[in-house]
Amino acid sequence: MSKHLHVDELRCFYNGHHDKPVVDGFSFAMQEGDIACLLGPSGCGKTTVLRSIAGFHSLAEGQINLAGRQISVPGHSLAPEKREIGMVFQDYALFPHLTVAENISFGLNGESQQYKDTELNRLLELVSLHGLAERYPHELSGGQQQRVALARALAPKPQLLLLDEPFSNLDVELRRKLALEVREILKQQGTTAILVTHDQEEAFAFADHIGVVYQGKIEQWASPYELYHQPQTRFVANFIGRGAFVPGIISDSGHIDTELGPVPCNLEEPGGTRVDVLLRPDDIVANRDQGQPAEVIHKVFTGTANLYTLRLPTGSTVEAALGSHIDCELGEQLSIELSADHGIAFTL
Questions:
Q1: Cα(240)–Cα(53) distance, rounded to whole angstroms?
Q2: Domain containing 222: what range?
Q3: What's a Pfam family this protein contains (predicted)?
């Protein structure tokens, strides 16, 4: 099956600066209807990639193809308005003097009035704003404004929808809720979409595939599950989810010996190889009878669990998410053991 979007070996510089590329050797591909996310820390290049796809940033190397058309190569870039790409921005970018209905209909310029009316009603229904068509942006909540921006971007039926940190102005609870709602809307529509964010939980709630971006490159392109359980690089292991590294040695029998016990080995290295093993908070459980001692040095109550940072006798620290009924004070000793069914280790 041919790819709907193919981003191939992009190299980009900040405008006017050609000393160090902000994006270098950046590649990924998406099928039609896929929802993806570019996730990474500030300054890693993810927004530059989004702007390149949209047609707002030129390429030094590489190419971008969308729906069978070449839309960007060095020296030639199809105009943004000819790319059939929709955008939803961080600040919504709604027209303040236009009503909800007029903002959405702006994306339908050139169509007949009958088509506009039919599509407007469909889109208002789709984003759950049917009773608010005559309101102005300042009369809406942040979440409602974002839904208007989404409907306006979807109105021309774009080949691709780009979302640039679209939920970052909202409070945390609404951000997660809206990410799930927008995902459902896009899946209903069969719209191919890319979200840019630095928020892991938002990315996990929204995307089928996530590209973790670091220093202008994709470190790993995978499902949220794979990124968490099978990180391919140390950066991804550190960046995704929570956890801590403890030292280990690969044994001759093929597992990894750690101070908390053996862990399955994910590496093809000879016995005796020294490694760092990533232990997630859910890899560690309490065992009052046969566990190993660990001192509580930090504690966060999350409602369903207590997230403990624990110091082991060697001085290494690990994190453990234990049931909220296990309530220990700072300085107290906990008895723990490993419950890891797979290993995540990196050679030193």
A1: 25
A2: 5-238
A3: ABC_tran
